Amino acid sequence: xxxxxxxxxxxxTGAVSSVHAQSDKTxxxxxxxxxxxxxxxxxxxxxxxxxxxxxxAKKKHNPQTATLRSAIxxxxxxxxxxxxxxxxxxxxxxxxxxxxxxxxxxxxxxTKFAYDAVFAATNGDSSKLPQIDKTVKRSDGTPLGLADxxxxxNQFRRDRDYSVLWLLIVWGLNVADATVFAHLKNFDxxxxxxxxxxxxxxxxxxxxxIGLVMNLKDKTSRPxxxxxx
Length: 229
Hints:
Layout lengths: L1 H29 L22 H4 L6 H10 L3 H5 L5 H37 L23 H40 L7 E10 L4 E10 L13
Antiparallel strand pairs: 1-2
Helix pairs in contact: 3-6, 5-6
């Protein structure tokens, strides 16, 4: 009998403790730590970060810049095109007519002076004959005839003028090379340039056919993020 009362007392005590614990739990649920944090009901919008397209887009190669630089300084346009191996070729080609100009101009002045000296000697004034350069005299040191000096003078003057012409031609080729290859820098040789054959339908004659299609894709760089979207 005592054991029955003892068991009943334990059951009653457990029931009271369970009800008290449930009441505390309900009270805590209304005053939780999370409830103390004020939630912002206003939706937050992400502010887009503007992207500088200039830093993303690749700087376009300007053929006019290459042309102007080559016209001012030979080889400068090739350096702008990053074709540095062409610079020695340009200056080597320009060195040949430049050397020819100074060579022919030097002998032109010598033969011209010798012609004037011999012409003056025929008129009785031989004071200039000793001043004739030895490179335009005979091996024994005597001057050539008047007609010989006239022919040599005209020949060296003609070759000097030709050397100036060749110098201008080589300079022009240097400018043309820089311009052409600057244009080719922007020429698209990637897979974006495609040429293929595909079937088509002629709406006028209502007959099928085969068409040659060329696709050119725009490779203009675009920003990674467009704020307008």
